[in-house]
Amino acid sequence: MGGNAVGEKGAPACYSGGGVADTPDRRVLYAAIIDCSNLNVHGNSGGPFPVTAFGKFFITEPVTSGTIYSELIGLVEPGSDPSSIVKDIVQLYR
């Protein structure tokens, strides 16, 4: 895979730096949940779409092909889980 302007390759990589002070759980993913059937969402349909809920997912396998395999371990109310970073307004950064 080729790199891009900031040197990202998109391939899995293990952290090789020093220790982490707060020991984050890197296998937990927070994501918005939407109702694709009711909203008629198919593939890259654009948006924005209303969020039905926010979920807390446990990543069950290494992400090697771009597909994330996970298990829903709970729902999260924005601002209620001090260990999460779930916010009412979501903006993606690179």
Q: What letter string, H or E per element, gives the SSE order?
A: EHEE
Per DSSP E runs of 2 or more residues, the count of β-strands stands at 3
Mean pLDDT over the full residue set:
74
Report the sheet-strand fraction: 15-25%
* Helix content estimate: under 10%
- Helical segment count: 1
**Any idea what the radius of gyration is?**
16 Å
N-end to C-end Cα span: 18 Å
Strand order of the largest sheet: 1-2-3
Shape summary: extended
Q: Which regions contain 5 or more consecutive residues with pLDDT less than 50? A: none
What class would the helix/strand composition place it in? mainly beta
Overview of the structural elements:
Helix content is 4%, strand content 21%. The chain has a domain at 28-76. The longest helix is centred in the middle third of the chain and has 4 residues, at 36-39. The radius of gyration is 16 Å and the shape is extended. It has 1 helix and 3 strands; from the N terminus they run βαββ. It has a 3-stranded antiparallel sheet, with no helix packed on it. The protein is mainly beta.
